[in-house]
Design brief:
The protein is an alpha+beta fold and 218 residues long. Helices cover 55% and strands 11% of the residues. The protein has a 5-stranded mixed sheet. A hairpin with a 3-residue loop joins β4 and β5.
């Protein structure tokens, strides 16, 4: 009888796994639902999509081309924004630079250059001095940059960045949050769909994203 029960359980597990798919994602497999839904900045019928990332993260860099194409395809139907995960805590220089450029409304225009610096030029921006040097060499006014870098608003956001990530249950990058409710990332999609070739994993992740956006519209 015990063997029969174990066999039935194994068949049920296999059956559940068989239906796991990026185009039909399952809660607890390709995505999870946040324990506490978070407020969104999107209004009307738009769906908010947040990408938690880090400049130095290879997986974030690999996802970037497909992610940008996906965002462009969505047009005005979504609100897309990035949050830099503070890897080293309240004084993380990468997150500090992100928040400074964001406050100066320069992050979006310099995002690709920053990624290229890390992953193509393989130049590591690991300190405040590295950040300042890079910013100035890329056309950012030094005095304005330093003023914003040391501003109360940016420092406050930097110190709370870790708590923000915890609120969204994020502990790795890239991680995507849809409508303040659903969380997914390439690692989850890969684990739930073994055998997906690495070049196709990013597209599979975006298929999950499509499904979660559709769920959010209902």
């Amino acid at each position: 009888m015990l063997r029969l029960k174990l066999a039935v359980a194994a068949v049920a597990l296999l059956a559940g796994s068989a239906f796991a798919s990026p185009t039909a994602p399952k809660n607890g497999a390709e995505y999870t639902t946040l324990k506490t839904p978070q407020p969104v900045l999107a209004d009307g019928k738009k769906v908010e999509v947040i990408e938690f990332f880090m400049y130095h993260c290879p997986a974030c860099y690999a996802l970037e081309p497909a992610m940008l194409a996906w965002v462009k395809k969505q047009g005005d139907s979504i609100v897309f924004r990035r949050i830099h995960l503070p890897l080293t805590g309240e004084n993380d220089p990468e997150a500090h630079m992100f928040l400074t450029l964001e406050a100066m409304k320069l992050e979006e225009s310099l995002h690709a250059k920053l990624l290229s610096t890390w992953h193509v030029e393989r130049r590591r921006l690991k300190s405040d001095a590295d950040n300042l040097d890079w910013a100035v060499k890329n056309g950012v006014d030094k005095d304005k940059y330093l003023a914003m870098y040391n501003s109360f608003s940016v420092i406050t956001k930097l110190k709370s960045a870790g708590r923000v990530a915890s609120t969204y249950e994020v502990n790795s990058t890239p991680t995507l949050i849809v409508n303040g409710r659903y969380l997914t990332n390439p690692s989850m999609v890969d684990t739930s769909n073994p055998g997906i070739p690495r070049p196709q994993l990013d597209q599979a992740t975006l298929q999950v994203l499509d499904a979660l956006v559709a769920m959010s519209r209902k």
